[in-house]
Each structure stands twice: as structure tokens, then as C-alpha cells.
Amino acid sequence: MKRGLVVVAHADDAEFGCAGTVALWARDGYEVTYVVCTDSSRGSEDPAITREQLIALRKEEQAEAARILGVREVLYLGHEDGAVVDDEPLRRQIVRLIRAYKPERVIAMDPTVRIVDRYVNHPDHVAVASATIAAVYPFARNRPTFPDLLAEGLEPFSVPELWLTSFGQANTWVDIGETIALKVEALRAHRSQMRDWDPEPMVRDWAKRAGAGQLIDAAESFRVIRLT
Ligand SMILES: [Zn+2]
Fold it and tell me: What CATH number has the domain bearing residue 117?
């Protein structure tokens, strides 16, 4: 059961949060699937680009990043960027995928993070993270929830491990020394977002800070909750 599901709000969220770990998992034989909940259509201030052009461009960029990391598949749930909420239809979409893919590990953001120092978290990140946790526990494993999914043959499934990308409550550190270059390359694939900015110094600085307490030169940190 070497499968991982990474649920995020926007194209590029997974690359910022966990691409080094994802690349390691893929290298170790995990089938990793990305679930991007929105259409990422508000990710540009350029008046010359239409919404439709931006949606298509960001899918191309996400596909390229996924290819670099060894991610098997990218799925889109199609919610409007900036307007996604944690509601039953979103939870149902995520439960459906959990029951269909039966991942050993699900990665999400931490929905309790709204403001850290001067960082204000995007409301879509909070909503998607909250819906993902609700889908993992209790609804994917709960038989009476979503009888229509059961009727489709999607039996309840218990996700063994929930990995939250960490902002200070980490209990797991992944050494990404061998994949940090892939993380940088995957971020660069999001050209509409990076533009003239080189993400490498910031990514290396984050990785250094994340690993500092653990004597790891480059790390991604997670709060891992084992549910079985
Ligand atoms: Zn985002």
C-alpha cells in the first residue's frame, strides 16, 4: 500500500510545502497523487492574461512540476480560487478520492495556522486543510457517511498516517538533502508565480531552519498523526 495523497488548494502549494518529501517517496516506490482543489485562477496580477488562460497555464506548470518530482497523477476538484470553503460537498469529494485510492499517507496543510508572525495564511489553505482532515477522520472511515459512495462500491477506508506540513509543531523531520534540487526545479516550473524570482535561496534557508534542531542540513518538517 505504498500510496500517498497530497491535498492542496492551489497549483504550487505542494511544491512549497512538501516537494522534497514527495520526491523521496516517489523515488522509494510510492504512487503519489496530487489533489488540487481550486482552479488557481486568481494567481496573477497581470491584466493581460484571461482567467481561462491562467487556469490552463497553471495546470501546465503543475503537470511539469509533478513530472519533475515523480508524482503519478494530478487531479483537480475545480473550486474557484479564493472561494473554496470547508463544506460537505468538498469533504465528499476528498472522501471519494481517499476511498478510491486508499493512501497509506495523506499530506495536508495545518488548518490551525491562520497567522504566524507576519505570515497570514491564505483562507483557501485553511479551508482545504480543514476539509481534508475531516475527510481523513472521521468520514472516509465512517460507513454511514455518504451512502451514495458506498453504493458506488467505495467502501470505508482508514488512512493510517496524516502528515500536516508544519509551522512549529513538528514531530517528524524528513532529510531532503538528496531531493532539494528537485524541489527547486519543481518550483521553477511554476513560471507564472516565480516570474523573475529565484526560489532557491529561500527554499534552502527554510530547509536549513527546519532541520536545524535535528542536525539535518536540509529538511521538511511535519506534524504526523498516526490514526491506526
Ligand atoms: Zn496556495
Answer: 3.40.50.10320
